[in-house]
């Protein structure tokens, strides 16, 4: 077998049958037509490997006389020497003839590799939120030097001042194009956050359905608020952002925020746009009010005190841990609640009751100070309160997603929540689920919670945006509490579809039955057998008025099978857009309503991770760019 001359074979093992296995990643490639596949694999996947020809490095050939190269070569047979000398002479001649071309080629290849490494390091700063100062860390520099010996790490300023702004502009331009081309309508969510540097950031996210019926979420802006947070100033900032993104007012379906009077006034009164108070925030206010009542507060205070005790005392925690291990349980720590999040109280109680036996055993064998042990009645209150709060926790979790449509679920899930809070008090439900009669305090809590929810969400079915969104969700359609609302919503949708049909006919007056014959006419105009068909069909128009066709399409949609609650409505519309063409277009315009401003709250968690102690000196502009890229760059 002829010797394998390519340097690529230094990194591959010949497996026979013209197959070679990479020594580094074990990938197998064919080399029937040569080693190009092997070389490309090394260049693309193993950048640290320097592929140099076995006879001579081109860099050496540029600077080293042929005679010197031959003198340094090992002894070889005359035949081999003749072949190698001839090849070397040819290559050297090429180098002498075109030295600048080869140098340019080498520089171009090195520049490409350098750019790829730079890009990957930028991903480290953007995706993993590592500080730019990591490039100055000794261990990191040694790692890069080991992996890429020929690569020189640029300074932190190079990444922060050169690459970051360029990448930001590149991604923002691409994202703007996507929004402009795909967003028929857009739902905005907004919130305000104060950083550890005491800067106030305004975040605005946009949510739309693209041409393939996928829900897209993008960060439009996260910027420092220089002015006071008045309704006028907030309206000005929001308007500036939508203008920067070329989003006209008529495209804004809805703006979702917390219940603050300033942002509500900015959206509804000043901008004149439709506003919806964050569902999760409103529900949080309702539950927080109940948990603050005196008849339940005392028990919660005892629980919090005990949880704090196990968190601050290593002796107590080790004792609790030991009892869990003896019971062959997975060791878990008690959870402390967060005052601003009611569901953290639910999680605290759930974990506390789960560890009931171990907590009682541990406290019985500890010298507990400033902690009141729970009575049997207190434990009953905790367990019963979990039953009451569980439906609210499930709803909060369900409504806080941003990767699926949620606005259409607001009305149905509120109906389900109120029914659940009524059902858990029935004798039948308690017997089926082995639940004891609720203590008086918890029963009062349940009744007050039900009253709060009914009060805070009583106007949901008056929102045309929400009712239409619900109707266009194939999981719900006419699932309303009020029959009149259901009928009015259906009637309104028929009106919208009628207008769409009329608009289509106005814009394309000849596209009504003659479209297909026109196509045929172009293809068959020279065929005698099609002449009679063309003459007969060219003036045919669809039967019925725009309104009658709208009624038929809407009724057919209503009569179609209801989708399961766990299915994706946008997937259904993608599959059925040819059956309901006008309703499908309407769904793109209306189903992107969001139920919460949680996307902005999650964004501020990212912002907090970016503004760590090592990055606390980052300027607000760089923070803005990093957050934008972290959210919008397709990694």
Automatic annotation (TrEMBL):
GO terms for molecular function: DNA binding; protein dimerization activity; zinc ion binding. Residues 3-46 form the BED-type domain. Keywords: DNA-binding, Metal-binding, Nucleus, Transcription, Transcription regulation, Zinc, Zinc-finger. GO terms for biological process: post-embryonic development. One of its GO terms (cellular component) is nucleus. It comes from the Eukaryota. SMART domains: ZnF_BED. SUPFAM superfamilies: beta-beta-alpha zinc fingers (SSF57667), Hermes dimerisation domain (SSF140996), Ribonuclease H-like (SSF53098). It is found in: Nucleus. Pfam families: Dimer_Tnp_hAT, zf-BED. InterPro entries: HATC_C_dom, RNaseH-like_sf, Znf_BED, ZnF_BED_domain_contain, Znf_C2H2_sf. This is Zinc finger BED domain-containing protein 4-like. The lineage of its organism: Eukaryota, Metazoa, Ecdysozoa, Arthropoda, Hexapoda.
